[in-house]
Amino acid sequence: AAVRWTNPSGVRVVVETLATGAEIQIYHFGDNDAASHQGTEEPTPECIVLEGTDYLPALQMLFRKHPQFLHAGDLPKMPGVDNGELVEGLMSHGLLEAKTSAPSTKKRKRSS
Known about the structure:
There is one protein chain. This protein is α+β, with helices and mostly antiparallel strands. The chain is built from three helices and six strands, in the order E-E-E-H-E-H-E-H-E. The protein has helices spanning 34-38, 56-65, 83-92; strands at residues 2-5, 11-18, 21-28, 46-51, 70-71, 96-99. The strands form two sheets. Strands 5-1-6 form a three-stranded antiparallel β-sheet. A hairpin with a 2-residue loop joins strand 2 and strand 3. The longest helix has 10 residues, at 56-65. It is globular.
């Protein structure tokens, strides 16, 4: 399946540098129900924390290519990183929507 941000304006990605290393913080309103947006108080953002910065190129591409749907295999991949795991995690929070019929945009190598 191909994916894209459900609502990119409701997602903010921050890279935080800590004494123990860097981490990616993804702030979002994906888990808030409709009632939390209708009250007098601002809804509280949720935060997903990813150790390191290995997923940053994939997250940036999702923003850059929106509203285009992308396959996890089309996202930039760092060594030892599973973009499928990233996609599943973001989908579980309602941050990505899927489309099953989109063809891959990755260029295929020609065989000689």
